[in-house]
Design goal:
The protein is an alpha+beta fold and 174 residues long. The protein is 38% helix and 34% strand. The chain folds into two domains: 72 residues, Double Stranded RNA Binding Domain, CATH 3.30.160; 98 residues, 2-Layer Sandwich (Ribosomal Protein S5, domain 2), CATH 3.30.230. Helix 3 links the parallel strand 7 and strand 8.
């Protein structure tokens, strides 16, 4: 089992979204610490985002990468895009994710682009509204991706068949 996990790590993509140096003024002077946000994905629908803090930048990135690996989740991808449009909010940041036709590419900026490329989405339109703080934008994007549902998921949650949801039976009867 360890080998299998090691093999998947070879295909994983990791991107550093943001690093930040924080200074704390104390009696003896300033103490500096670092924080980092890292996204890890397999380009096949699994992605995780982690946040790490440490006294050295390398340690902060390592911690963020480990947390991203632990928090990976599956994103439904249909024909290289997401199943439906969604608007997600975290703090003062609002993110709109919209499915796009093949050939559009990833129309996204900064943190959202890194997440979309790591998860393996090839065609998507995005818009970031409100605050553009990387931490909040990342959390809003993750929340939006976790809220995505396929037609099969929606049917199962409602206790119906896909045909009942799409109205296929109504067309057959008429």
């Amino acid at each position: 089992m360890f080998q299998r996990r090691h093999q998947t790590q070879e295909h994983e993509v990791e991107k550093i979204i943001d690093t930040n140096r924080v200074s704390k003024v104390v009696k003896g002077g300033r103490n500096f610490s670092f924080s980092a946000i890292v996204v890890v994905g397999d380009r096949k629908g699994k992605v995780g985002v982690g946040h790490g803090k440490a006294n050295e930048i390398v340690d902060a990135i390592r911690k963020a990468k480990q947390r991203a690996g632990k928090t990976m989740f599956r994103v439904p991808i249909i024909h290289g895009t997401i199943p439906h449009e969604i608007v997600s909010k975290y703090g003062a940041s609002r993110i709109m994710l919209k499915p796009a036709s093949p050939g559009t590419g990833v129309i996204a900026g900064g943190p959202i682009r890194a997440i979309m490329e790591a998860v393996g989405i090839e065609n998507i339109l995005t818009k970031s509204m409100g605050s553009n703080t990387p931490t909040n934008v990342v959390k809003a994007t993750v929340r939006g991706l976790k809220d995505l549902r396929t037609l099969r998921d929606a049917a199962r949650l409602r206790g119906k068949t896909i045909a009942e949801l799409t109205g296929q039976e109504a067309k057959d009867e008429a």
